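Budget justification aside, the reviewers requested a transparent look at the raw inputs and outputs of the sequence design task funded under Objective 1. We therefore reproduce one unedited record. The lines immediately below are the structure tokens for a 256-residue chain.
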């Protein structure tokens, strides 16, 4: 890359993904800046333009790159890497992470807005269980006045899709065969590599296949929350950090 190569690509990335034009002064910065300094300058520039969501997305990508691998990050030394003549692999990894989180904003913008909750139960509606209330709240089709009942088919808007690496291999084969090019939200798909793969069997053919399929999903769908294999287990990390009361999660865990 030339002196301003990374900065120029960051400017182009923001314009391509979020239609944001950064001031020319940013891309013509001083020589021998570190990647970390370039990111801080970009965040400041976005804040000046009142693009707070994009600035926050860049912060998340920056923090993910700086975080140690032990804690689910990439462990990159952005301060020691220069925008010019640095490690091109680090540049490309950084650009990918930023694109992932900018695409997450696009996913959020496209997301269906759930119907507002009602303050009181209509007189004609029977009392519903908690599960029925969650399904009714996420329904995207009209429901009977009395609420959903047994044998009803309800189309819903899901909040999260979760899968182990073992289940994802079959899912990925199916969606690939169907020609699926885009998932509903790149920031709401959680693949936990915690079932079949283990550091002791990473070199086996099956583990390589499972890990490869999960990595392909991360790259092709730009998954924001993929941490790799054996970072955690699904029923602890996801439940504690991402599942919220009233959310609708589709997936499976062998321990549940």
């Amino acid at each position: 890359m030339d002196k301003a190569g990374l900065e120029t690509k960051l400017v182009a990335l923001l314009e391509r993904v979020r239609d944001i034009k950064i001031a020319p002064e940013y891309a013509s910065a001083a020589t021998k800046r570190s990647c970390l300094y370039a990111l801080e300058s970009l965040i400041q520039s976005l804040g000046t333009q009142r693009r707070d969501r994009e600035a926050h997305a860049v912060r998340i990508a920056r923090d993910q790159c700086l975080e140690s691998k032990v804690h689910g990050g990439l462990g990159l030394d952005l301060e020691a890497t220069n925008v010019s003549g640095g490690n091109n692999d680090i540049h490309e990894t950084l650009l990918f992470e930023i694109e992932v989180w900018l695409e997450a904003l696009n996913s959020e913008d496209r997301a269906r807005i759930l119907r507002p909750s009602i303050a009181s139960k209509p007189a004609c509606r029977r009392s519903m269980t908690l599960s029925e209330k969650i399904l009714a709240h996420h329904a995207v089709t009209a429901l009977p006045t009395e609420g959903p009942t047994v044998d009803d088919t309800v189309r819903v808007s899901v909040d999260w899709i979760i899968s182990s690496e073992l289940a994802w291999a079959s899912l990925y084969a199916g969606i690939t065969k169907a020609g699926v090019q885009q998932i509903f939200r790149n920031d709401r798909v959680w693949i936990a590599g915690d079932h079949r793969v283990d550091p002791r069997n990473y070199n086996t053919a099956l583990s390589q296949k499972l890990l490869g399929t999960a990595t392909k999903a991360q790259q092709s769908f730009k998954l924001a929350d993929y941490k790799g294999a054996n970072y955690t287990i699904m029923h602890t990390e996801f439940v504690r950090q991402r599942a919220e009361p009233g959310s609708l999660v589709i997936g499976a865990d062998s321990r549940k």
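The first helix runs from residue 5 to 18. The beta strands are 160-164, 189-192, 249-251. Computational costs for records of this kind are itemized in the attached budget.
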